[in-house]
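Order emerges. As here.
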Amino acid sequence: MESLIPIVAIMTGIIVPVAVFAWQYIEGKEKRETILEIAKHVDDPARLDGLLAMLDEKKQEPVDYRRGGVITLFVGIGIYLLGAVSFGSLFSGIGLLVGAIGLGVLIAGYLYPNTSDEINTAVERFEKG
């Protein structure tokens, strides 16, 4: 029975990523097949371009570092508190490290504007002053 636990742990580390990749592939395959079937019946090239744009799943908006920084900061605080209450100084140190990274990302989000409105506002302020 004792030798079963490491085997299950190793298999879990292999099965989970393979399952995720398979799920992503199957989900994308159905989507691509549906769009191709629709494209066979579309005569307008403009509408066909719109369908092809649906396949392109890239994010159009920039990453909001402030949101990610706040999330990372609070994950670090949670790990720190978990270490302080239960697991000891190692987890407290890890929590402080993660919290510091989150604070750095949060500050970077305020120093480097990422949306077009923020960039336009920053340029206008620079031009005025």
DSSP finds five helices and no strands in the chain. Residues 65-128 form one domain. The two ends are 73 Å apart (CA to CA). The mean pLDDT is 82.
